[in-house]
Please model this.
Amino acid sequence: MLFSLVVLGFIFIIGLVIGSFLNVVILRTVSEESIVFPASKCPKCQTPLKWYHNIPVLSYICLRGKCAFCHEHISWQYPFVELVTGCLFVALFLRFCSPFDALFGLSVMNPISWSQIIVYLFSLVITFFFIAIAGTDIIEKKVSDAHTIPLISLGLLYSILYSIITFVAYTKANGFPKITIDFFLTCPILYSAAAGILGFLIMEAISRLGLLFVGARAFGEGDSYIAAGLGTVFGALLGCSAMYTNFLPIFQMLILILVLSGIIQIIITLPLLIKKLIQNKNWITLGSLAAFIVYIILYLYAQYAKWLTNDIAYWTSTVILVLLGIFACIKLIGGLKENKAEDGLYLPFGPAMILAGFIMLFTVMF
Model:
């Protein structure tokens, strides 16, 4: 058991250190500074920090959340990002390496294969860029190409390397494979690239609906690149898995991530939106939203209670639901156009997409 705890502790510490570096990446992406030079400094007084001021989490606790020089408050972002990264490193190790037997627990460690290590390391690199994207989007409400382009490239690179290794291994064992159309259609590279392109196109299409209704994009262009990165990454993971032999599950995964992102965004945004509508006395929009939510609940309950078995009742209630939804969306989008980011109503969509990506990373079998 001691050995297992040491391994988990070591992985957690590595995660804390990477999290500390991620704080630098996030903040210097916002300030457009180099992530290498100069050395770490206080963001308030600009005084270079000593090495013992940069110990993840511990330095924050020992300094009581204040700078050692100017005594200004240090943002809680620093220990939060470090702890989240450390916990994710451990959780992903347990997820992909399956080191412990359910029967014996920490007392016995299972052997870990090279394939498990490769997938685990790939998930860590993905995590690095996921956190960097979410952190930058939350602070600056912008998505940096320096984070999304490498994420897109990582998915493609992983599928390319996997395809090359698999091709070489197959050739050595069975001779040169027969080149057919199926050979290309089942290639992980194609799956990864297609999922990336599809993710970008879907987000762009949704975003440009805002131009149609209110004359402004529903989402920023950076969100489309995040969707492309999620597409190439999950396209590579599923495409390189023997469990998936066609593109349909990858397409379904991509749609599920985007739908889940929308649900997460609604859950986070709805309280702020309702508060703003009440403050502005926008009773029509508030009423349409309330009516839509109440009608959804009644509609789902009616289906559960089997009240809509009659075709006329079913289609009538469904049409009403769609019309209420369209009306509520038009009013909400119009309200979002009138209420700018400085009013506190706008929340970036990127973090919701990243959170949905993490949920899929932990729940889907690869």
Q: What stands out?
A: Residues 340-345 have pLDDT under 50 and may be disordered. The longest strand covers residues 105-109.
